[in-house]
Design brief:
This protein is of the alpha/beta class. It contains 12 helices and 25 strands. Its cofactor is Ca(2+).
Length: about 500
Amino acid sequence: MRRPLLCFPILLSTICSASNVLILHEKRDAAPAGFVLSRSAPSDTMLDLRMALKQSDIAGLEQALHAVSTHGNPAYGKHLTSEEVASYTKPSAESIDAATSWLKERNFLHRAVSHAGDWLQFSIPVKKANEYFGANFSVFAHTDTGSEIVRTLEYSLPAELTNHVKVLHPTLSFSPPNVIPEISISKRDHLASRQAPDPTNCIQNPACLQAKYNIPTTSATQSSNTITVTGFQFNNPSVFLTQSFLNFMRPDKTFNVTFGTRYVAGASNSTSQGNSEVSLDMEYVMGLATDVPVTFLGVGPATATPADLPTLLLEGFGVLLNDTNPPQVVSTSYGADESFYTPAISESVCILFMQLGARGVSLLFASGDGGVQTGSSTGVGDNTATCKVFGPTFPSGCPWVTSVGATRNVVEIAAFLSSGGFSNVVPAPSYQAADTAAYVAQLGLTYQGMYNASGRGFPDVSALGLDFQIRDYRFGWQTESGTSASTP
């Protein structure tokens, strides 16, 4: 009779230890350039985490995207509904049950934050996160600003979740103190110029660009056209500034400026002054796309907390994904260095963009203003002649967005500031593989080993990006340059 009694605690111990087995899921050797370890995070610090579940049929979604986007395909132009997209991204019932059961058993309140249920959000104190995920959440400081962020350099998943969870975020992904708009040069030019539209001799303004690129000055006639302009943290548009800009720069037309506004993830219309970035975007979108309805999408609170770009993108673009009638075009002038983020979260955001593409949304992103070496003008990275590896930008490395670079001069050549290159994470997609391979072959041994020759190449297109006149509440009339100017 004693043997069964002795075996029971041994069996129970085996079961308990099996349920607590942790398997390493993501790891980085060190914090990215520009961040240093400061101290351990307080055990009671609350972390707002997202758990991405593995999606059911991403290969099928990619095929559907190619079908609706390819001339001659019977499905061309027959964009998917949000429900049809969700049928490709919805996790299996087993994955949903495994993740939600694990969270419930540990009394973590959670909620689905995506239509397909592939993203779960929950809050957890540092002490529990370290215990349950084999992590070491610590405080890291940004070397230039002293701004602090709580992250870990590795985490594990319970064995019962490894086949169901793709990524926990934010864990290993770092972000600069604020999401960086891709404007690199700003010089005051208080005397605005409304020159005759001679494309061979003009400072950039709507009339000049319309003449240069043969953009119609008449009102758009396609009633279903819509454009969304995004803004992250501290950015709000000004009706007054946009109106005064258009009154001066487009004397050929009478404007009554109105635009829609949407605010998500804690954003609010706390100010109507407008900063340089959002002024540039709204003034040129409305000045060039005459009478096309424009909506401003504000994402993220205006706080001192370092902005996490992937989270802002998931929040903002996730809202657009669920719209019955999403915008045809979304213009975004923000980005960061690809090295800040892990491949898993970069891919997860990129899949969101794939979903929007299948719904018929064209996503334009500024390629960055740091040349080939560093993308987001954060002061991060080695900007000297000792550079040994080029630094691509995120999310321009995603093949489901249109990355926009900057040019200069009458006979256009690349602007010195314009970022471009090859992703270190994403391989070249089929639609550009032959072209990027030919370009790499033409380079020969030049810069060999400094870039990923098999990566997704960007930018996809380029446009003038230097000396754009804008109206800004701080300095009045001034000029701005950067891929932020090229993109809208």
